[in-house]
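S.,

Sequence below, as promised.
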Amino acid sequence: MKALRVPPMYKCIGLCDADLLDNGTRHPNLVLMKIAGFLFDNHILFELILNPKANLDRYEHVFMSRVFTFTNLPKFYNKAQGTADEAKFHIGGTGFYANETSVTEYRKKREEDFFRLDYDEYLNTLENHRGGHKAKGIDMARQMPYYRLYDLFVEKQVKAGFKRDKYKDYLKYSIGFLTRGCVRHCPFCINKLENQVCRYSKLEWFLDNERDEKGRLIRPYIYLWDDNFLASDKSVWQPLLQELINSGRPFQFRQGLDERMLAQSPDGELMAQMLSKSKYHGDFIFAFDNWKDRELIEKALKIWKRHNPKKGTKFYLFCGFKLKEHSHQKFYQDIWELFQRIRILMSYGCVGYVMRHEDYHKYEISNLYVQIARWCNQQQFYKKMSFWEFVYRNQSYWEEQTFPNSNRPQLKTFEEFEEDLRAGYYGDEDGQVKMCLPLQTVMKTFKRFPEHKDELLEMFNYKMENLINPQLWQK
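The prediction came back faster than expected:
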């Protein structure tokens, strides 16, 4: 199948990924791909809008999705407000309501958004070719995505000099939800008001079987957006997991799996066992978002590591939520908890991946989160260096490039660094060396929290090779 190309003289339906047009995004928009698939089934011309200043005369309708609240809407949408073109827009996505603070309003907007396309006046004039109870209109659970939607975008990026592999999420994966919902009520999560996990789609409804001229699958991998797959009933997750295993294709749950379920469910051992036998794509991904869950996480880790002692295991580490400009104690507590979670993960041989809530920007030393993420989220650094070593290596690398004949050591302890500091090596005057941004940020942190300097230094020196302890999970 070749990507659909609409000649410029024809009118068509416009599909707008607002996040792509503003910030760029790593993932294709599944809703837009499903709308594209529905239009394709009905032989309706459509295209992905790639110009934020696009001429709306070309489009009879524009379906626009925004996932992130910080995404700026495209200029053609803002220009259409108050004109006849405004009626062309069908808008939706979590980016239009995720920051709503009123529970009542949030619940209302969430429900409206979730079912918006089911009641869309235009879509309900078209035939449903995917079965189920609807004769007309899109059935989001059953609709096969049109996986070629982003091909033109990728081609343009490759021509601009970017490597094609950077866009593998757009090119190599079948994408969907097997289940929807969650039971955790995390205040920062889009599913915070959900109370259960229900079956949603069958794998066959979004599994792509397109092959190239040599008979090879074009999309050999599967990734899943399930909110909390393992929290579904055993009668749901077990057959679905077995179906994934039977497909023979590498798969991955992109939002992570709830590792706490291994400790809380009577079937935790079975979960770990089945996952250990699966053809999983990349690292297994879990989440360790709350320090208060540490006992559950460690109990689950013992189960997990017994069945998966050598498989790569990564944990999302959420941080920065509800920070404000002068919330010093909250900031310190957040950083402390982040490093304590890292310490536990290191002791079990697992890696972390720092996920920052946008609130982190509000605090005066927000760059500390940036530097921790630069270290933690790159496994070649996380596994070999402490955070302090990473920070100092940034400094020594800068000095090597600026003063190639200096013969300075690549790594120094903090105590050795302080000797240089006292000797006047660092500063802004002639003959003195400037500190790189990571080192400046660490020093600002020490200055802001002098009473916690020793504790911070201890945490900054956590190192996996010193902390890993297989006896924690070996019987």
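The chain has 18 helices and twelve strands.

Coffee later?
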